[in-house]
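Input structure tokens:
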């Protein structure tokens, strides 16, 4: 890809009459001191650091502190720190969002794009399940969701690990990521910048990978290495959490640190690695090409749109002011409650401080001598020497406004009171979750945004494997929610030749609950055993044992056995008979499935009472769960 400056140099050799709009624009751009983020990487890094160190960082640090149950850092909060009270809505919002959005086990299924790829669908699904499990995508999603709720957006980074021969999925800290703030669509973002602190003791590993050109050569001199070593500093202040204890910071600073900046420019097809402290570029080359286009490894996840760019809006920031005002009022109420402790004034003209101290320190029921007055006059009644101090009272308007603030926060965030009722059984509990999944609640759009992120990550993993995977891999097929013990080899040629795109499988609480599956089987087990041949009946029993987690001693070898019963060898009593000739039966070690190809046989039940239809309907809760 040629830049405008290169085109300008070529066009300068042409006549003025053949001057093009492109060359004129190139001359105008080259005549300015600043053209893009690569004009001066030192200044670019300074701008990005300043953006990360603004008041926005202070707000995010305060929100993170509240998430961990630490006191906020709001300087205007009234009262002493010991009396400061915080109604921790931030943690409630984050915990509720995590529970409502985080899938139990993220799964993406392949949608074949041609007829030839249909036969490979099961293998592609199993391969993507293997990639997600090996990368612990669910754990990484926790970090991404936390960043979405605190920092406006979360970041997945998908790269190829040549050692593991598998795509590597990571969650990158949002505070260390920067990108073009102009477009609203992620696909239109022109550049990304990633900052990563690297300890000096780990610098060799970074340079060994990042400083190589396309031919694998490293062009760093000894002076370049010495410059980086000499200019290494303490851990960057702008990335430190201010709530960290001094001992933690001292531990971090046992190492010397460098900040490695990676710039990804889609427009100019450039990948630049820059060491800020040494003002040194250690890599400058083209981006990795994937499907004929520059590859950007980042996937931005937002839960809400901000209407300006692709950054999004954090839910906790929306109610941050309400949280602050509520904390100030609760702190004031706490101080008033402390002030309501009874206080007593004593008349210093009739009683001394020593007498008051003696009375306070005396044991219950003790008799205390009162010294006579000095002037010889008769002493007044002892009770007349003490007076009750005034006690402040809470204003009813204050109490009402606190309740109103809580209602405003609950309305804005839709955080409901925790349900404390007891549900009858697994079916009832799952039906409640099933209704929530199929309801267009306020989590619906957030769940869709998260699922879009999973789909983008899965498609990137698939395309990376198609390009870089050169040998067969081992995967585990999964049938009816049961992972088979026998591994399966997926040929690299099948993966490279397949044409498919991956889509997120929406979480189905009915199908995913083993107790609901067992309940559905229990209600229809007699019918199943009547219509199924003996081998299929044994396979059904094995499936039930696997679902309830029965030990291997109970399950045996897993080979369906012929039931030998008196009077009907090889059949279950009440069965219509042996399958007809030519009927296809599963091999002994084949994956068990609850839904097999239909086999015509005499006395077949009508579709309305077909056991497979009953089972499918029971597991689906009466219908298919559609993605919101």
């Amino acid at each position: 890809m040629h830049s405008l400056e290169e085109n300008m140099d070529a066009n300068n050799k042409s006549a003025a009459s053949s001057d093009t709009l492109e060359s004129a624009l190139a001359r105008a751009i080259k005549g300015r001191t600043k053209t893009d983020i690569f004009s001066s990487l030192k200044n670019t890094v300074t701008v990005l650091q300043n953006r990360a160190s603004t008041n926005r960082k202070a707000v995010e640090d305060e929100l993170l502190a509240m998430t961990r149950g630490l006191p906020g850092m709001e300087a205007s909060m009234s009262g002493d720190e010991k009396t400061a009270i915080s109604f921790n809505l931030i943690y409630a919002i984050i915990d509720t969002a995590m529970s409502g959005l985080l899938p139990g086990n993220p799964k993406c299924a392949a949608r074949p794009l041609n007829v030839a790829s249909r036969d490979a669908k099961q293998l592609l699904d199993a391969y993507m399940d293997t990639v997600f499990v090996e990368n612990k995508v669910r754990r990484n999603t926790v970090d991404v969701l936390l960043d979405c709720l605190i920092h406006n957006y979360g970041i997945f980074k998908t790269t190829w690990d040549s050692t593991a021969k598998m795509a590597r999925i990571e969650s990158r800290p949002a505070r260390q990521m920067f990108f073009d703030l102009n477009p609203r669509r992620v696909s239109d973002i022109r550049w990304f910048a990633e900052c990563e602190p690297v300890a000096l003791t780990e610098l060799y590993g970074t340079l060994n990978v990042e400083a190589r050109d396309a031919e694998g050569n490293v062009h760093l001199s000894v002076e370049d290495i010495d410059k980086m070593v000499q200019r290494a500093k303490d851990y960057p202040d702008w990335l430190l959490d201010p709530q960290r204890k001094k001992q933690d910071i001292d531990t971090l600073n046992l190492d010397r640190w460098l900040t490695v900046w990676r710039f990804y420019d889609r427009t100019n097809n450039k990948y630049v690695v820059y060491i800020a402290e040494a003002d040194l570029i250690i890599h400058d080359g083209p981006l990795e090409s994937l499907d004929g286009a520059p590859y950007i490894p980042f996937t931005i996840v937002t839960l809400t749109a901000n209407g300006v760019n692709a950054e999004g809006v954090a839910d906790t920031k929306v109610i941050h002011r309400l949280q602050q005002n509520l904390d100030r009022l609760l702190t004031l109420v706490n101080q008033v409650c402390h002030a309501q402790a009874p206080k007593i004034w004593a008349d210093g003209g009739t009683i001394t401080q020593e007498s008051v101290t003696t009375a306070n320190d005396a044991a219950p029921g003790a008799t205390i001598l009162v010294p006579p007055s000095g002037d010889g006059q008769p002493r007044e009644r002892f009770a007349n020497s003490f007076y009750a101090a005034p006690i402040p009272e809470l204003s009813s308007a204050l109490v009402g406004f606190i309740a109103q603030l809580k209602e405003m926060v609950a309305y804005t965030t839709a955080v409901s009171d925790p349900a404390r009722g007891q549900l009858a059984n697994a079916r009832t509990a799952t039906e409640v979750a099933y209704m929530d999944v199929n309801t267009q609640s306020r989590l619906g759009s957030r769940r869709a945004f998260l699922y879009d992120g999973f789909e983008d990550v899965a498609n990137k993993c698939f395309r990376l494997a198609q390009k870089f995977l050169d040998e067969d891999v081992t995967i585990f097929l999964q049938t009816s929610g049961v992972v088979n013990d026998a591994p399966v080899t997926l040929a690299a040629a099948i993966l490279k030749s397949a044409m498919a795109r991956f889509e997120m499988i929406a979480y189905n609480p009915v199908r995913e609950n083993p107790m609901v599956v067992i309940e559905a089987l229990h209600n229809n087990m007699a019918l199943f055993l009547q219509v199924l041949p003996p081998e299929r009946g044994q396979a059904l029993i094995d499936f039930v044992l696997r679902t309830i987690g029965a030990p291997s001693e109970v399950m045996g070898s897993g080979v369906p056995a012929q039931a030998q019963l008196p009077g009907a060898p090889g059949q279950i009593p009440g069965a219509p008979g042996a399958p007809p000739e030519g009927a296809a039966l599963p091999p002994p070690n084949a994956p068990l499935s609850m839904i097999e190809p239909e086999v015509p046989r005499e006395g077949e039940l009508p579709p309305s009472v077909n056991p497979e239809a009953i089972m499918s309907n029971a597991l689906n809760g009466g219908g298919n769960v559609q993605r919101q």
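DSSP finds 22 helices and 20 strands in the chain. The first helix runs from residue 4 to 11.
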